[in-house]
Structure formats: structure tokens, C-alpha cells
Amino acid sequence: xxxxxxxxxxxxxxxxxxxxxxxxxxxxxxxxxxxxxxxxxxxxxxxxxxxxxxxxxxxxxxxxxxxxxxxxxxxxxxxxxxxxxxxxxxxxxxxxxxxxxxxxxxxxxxxxxxxxxxxxxxxxxxxxxxxxxxxxxxxxxxxxxxxxxxxxxxxxxxxxxxxxxxxxxxxxxxxxxxxxxx
Amino acid sequence: xxxxxxxxxxxxxxxxxxxxxxxxxxxxxxxxxxxxxxxxxxxxxxxxxxxxxxxxxxxxxxxxxxxxxxxxxxxxxxxxxxxxxxxxxxxxxxxxxxxxxxxxxxxxxxxxxxxxxxxxxxxxxxxxxxxxxxxxxxxxxxxxxxxxxxxxxxxxxxxxxxxxxxxxxxxxxxxxxxxxxxxxxxxxxxxxxxxxxxxxxxxxxxxxxxxxxxxxxxxxxxxxxxxxxxxxxxxxxxxxxxxxxxxxxxxxxxxxxxxxxxxxxxxxxxxxxxx
Lengths: 182, 275
Description:
The structure holds two protein chains of two kinds.
Chain A: E1 2-9, H1 16-23, E2 32-34, E3 45-47, E4 51-58, E5 61-67, H2 76-82, E6 87-93, H3 100-113, E7 118-123, H4 133-139, E8 148-150, H5 156-181
Parallel strand pairs in A: 1-5, 1-6, 6-7, 7-8
Antiparallel strand pairs in A: 2-3, 4-5
Chain B: E1 3-6, H1 12-21, E2 26-31, E3 36-42, E4 45-51, H2 58-64, H3 70-79, H4 85-94, H5 100-118, E5 125-130, H6 146-165, E6 172-175, H7 190-195, H8 205-212, H9 216-228, E7 232-235, H10 251-254, H11 258-274
Helix pairs in contact in B: 1-6, 2-3, 6-9, 8-9
């Protein structure tokens, strides 16, 4: 069976695990632990290595979604996870502007590892204090070609939209390769 | 007893604090990936420093400090065979070329510069041997470590900030399409002028650093200040010199049949839609 990979990344507590859980057909294989650091005690547990979900495409192909650990001290995993990926989703918590700088750093790092197509998912858009995506685009210094999408990671439809937009970007990239060759 | 370790685990700031507070006398040798640096301390104060790759002689240091012209440097070098730094220093003072103050200040600046270089090393095996003094023929100074530690800590914070802003040197830069109105009044530094001719998305920051002989930190500083000034913006480098653009998709998709690649993506799209 052919396996393909997409990576879901973003700062600590951005909603990566929920994002994968929303569309995975298997229970997300998660390596969560209780948080030891007081600073990061916004939630009770965090992903310490990676988690992954699976979507079977057909009898011959499966798509794996790999979530990266959110805490900085596990960033050595990022390069390993980025190898051979189709594309990646950067999840950003729209209600926590203090994490935008970290999100941009993660984004740049992944682009350096593997310059594959990516989209930015502005998560928690259902919250009252969520930043608008236009404002987030400026704060994250995203150029207009980069898609930044409203997202609620708990919602399957919302996650589907994000993944589809990433796939459209991948398709556009393949067509661009065609044009270059022509 | 020798103190041994790696700067990765025990930082230079911690080491210097230890030497300063315990007023230690001895030699610190740090081996980095490309060079080794040797620093001598007396009673917790910086006394002498040298690198494995540079001319550490007094005449070399005076030349580097631009107190001696290249012609003077060559002339003195040719005539001081076998003369120690102390002897040469006395000769230069007695001949009224320099004052004692000039020589000591020049040496002090050089030693501090060598020690400061260590603050940019994130890794490197170190060994501190107590009671090892600088070579007898060398001129030593006595510089308090407090200010060096403070300045070094500031450098580390700046480096961390720059690495956050510019995490990779594999990216390119281009001039912004519409520079701000204040660009006309901008004054660029020498380093910035050196970099400007190479601003092109085809060049990665690493390539620019190499050709302009700037260190990783210096190129980050220059690019960061140009970005802040609104002159350039960071982009993905569109090409490496002499090599085709990096594939944006994994090899097995880009290098295979394009139609097959697209069909594969369409299959995933159909499946996700049906979820």
C-alpha cells in the first residue's frame, strides 16, 4: 500500500491534535503526557513526540497526518517529520497573538526543511476574541499567495476544507511544474 | 583539577562567572568546529587570549588595530626575528612609536574581542586548567570580567532574537516593490553596502555571507536591519547557483509522471470530500 504524508504543525496548544482527531479514521495515536512546566500549563497534557491519524484513500493508498510536538524543546523532531511530506498545515490559535511569532518561526523552519506547499489554518475562529484572518495575515507576514483559512479544529467540515485547500495548492504546484517543463 | 565540558551544557557565561567569582588563575581552552581559542586568566581577570588561526604576535595585533600600516608591519616583521613581544613592546615605546598605554589598550581590545567571539559558539569542548600562566614572553593585561559577561549575555540574547527572526540562511532576499517614503534619508552601514549588490532572490543568505565574508550573525544583523528599514523582504530562494530550483513537492511525485501525480492528488481530494 502506498502511504502519503501531510504534516500538521503549529505552536504549543494551537489545536494540532484536535485537528487530526477530527478527520482521522483511527483513534489518533497520540503520545501525550501531563505537562510539567508551569509556564506551559495552559492545558493538562501535550504531545511530546508526535501523533498521527490515518485516512484510507482506497485499497492502494493511505494518507497519514502527522502532528508535530508543540513545545520548543522537541523541535528536533520537525526535520524528521518533514521528510517526504506532500505539504503541511500550520495551525495558529487565533485568540493568542502572543504565539504568532512562534508560528512564523515554525513556518519558516518547515519551509527551509522542505519547501512544499502549505496553508495556514487560523484555529478557534468560533471564539469571540479570535483575530480576523486578514489581521493575522499581516501579523504573520504572509504574502497574498499563501492561503490563510478560517478553522475550527473540532469541526470535521472545517478541517476538511483546510485539507482540501492544501490539496488544491499541491495541484496548482504540480501544474506549475508542468508549465516550467513546457 | 581541570574543569571540562561542552559549551552546549555549560555556557560561557556560567564559566566566566565561575572564574570571576572564584578569582581563578588558569587557562581556558575551547575547541570549536573550525578553530581553538585559548584564554588566560589571573585572579579572575582576563590576562591574555589567542586563537589558533590568527597572528597573535604583538606586531600582528598592532597591525590589525590599524596602529601599524601594512608597510610598517612587513618592515618590523622582517627585522624582529627571535624578538619576544615584551622586547618588541619596549623597543617601540623607547623609539617613541607608541606609548605604553597605546600598546596595552590595543592588546586589551584584541583579547576581549577573542573572548567575545566565544559567545557566538553554541558548541565546543572546553577545558580549564588551573594555575597555567600565559607564555612568559607575552604581554598580559588585567581586564575585569563583569562587563564582558554582561556584553556577552546581551550578544546571546541578540543572537537568539535574530535566529527567531531569520531562522534559516537558506532563504533569499529581494528589494521590496514599494519602499517606504523614508528610504531616501536612509544611511547604510559599510556592511549593509557590501550586501546590497547581492540582494537577489537567486542568492541565499548563506551565499551572500560567504561572498561578503560576513559571519552568520553579521549577515543576520545586516538583513534584519534592511528588512526593518523596509528596503528588502525575505523570500524563498528561487535558485541555487548553477543548480535547478528545489522541487517543491516530494521527488516521487515531481520526478514521476506528472499526470499520475495529479491523478493521485485528485484521488485524495475525492476521498476527503466524501468524509
